[in-house]
Design goal:
Structural class: mainly beta
Helix content: under 10%
Shape: elongated
Order of helices and strands: HEEEEEEEE
Radius of gyration: 17 Å
Oligomer: single chain
Length: 164
């Protein structure tokens, strides 16, 4: 019964200039047999511009060592615009970030360039200042669309919010 009251829904009062930040663990893959899957961490920070739009920053690192194929690491960081579809208890969102992306294979030199990250997910507001959630992300290298395969990451999120 106490767990229910701890996780009972509470309305969110998102406003301009709210600040939220957090991070989480993620699983990433190109879904190719010749490349390993990876485990990593991601971090994010959002600064509210309106009740629904925010300036969003994100970064991630993953080491790819799971399964068959070549091992590599992936590092990325970017800035963009986030959109909160609703600001009640469950907050679905979408974000688009441009930034830098680096892949480094064990047997080759690193490749890096302009990266794109498209994110969709949701956060559950446990309290007005604490949330948990999930996100699915696509990462691509705009400067090498042919050489860099489609990359998907699935992230668990834990976040904290400082209302304005």
């Amino acid at each position: 019964m106490a767990l229910y009251f701890c996780l009972a829904p509470r309305p969110g009062n998102c406003e301009a200039w709210d600040f939220a930040a957090g991070g989480g663990a993620y699983y990433g893959s190109t879904f190719r047999q010749d490349q390993k899957d990876g485990l990593g961490i991601s971090v994010y920070a959002d600064l509210g511009l309106t009740e629904t739009l925010s300036l969003t920053f994100g970064g991630a690192y993953a080491a790819h060592f799971v399964g068959g194929g070549r091992a590599y690491s992936l590092t990325g960081a970017g800035v963009g615009i986030g959109y909160k579809i609703d600001t009640l208890v469950v907050v679905p969102f979408a974000a688009l970030r441009l930034g830098w992306l680096l892949t480094s294979f064990e047997d080759e030199s690193a490749s890096n360039g302009l990266g794109l990250c498209v994110t969709v997910g949701f956060d559950y507001l446990v309290t007005e200042s604490f949330s948990v959630g999930f996100a699915a992300e696509y990462r691509g290298m705009l400067s090498d669309l042919v050489g860099f395969p489609a990359y998907a990451a699935f992230t668990t999120r834990v976040g904290f919010r400082l209302p304005y």
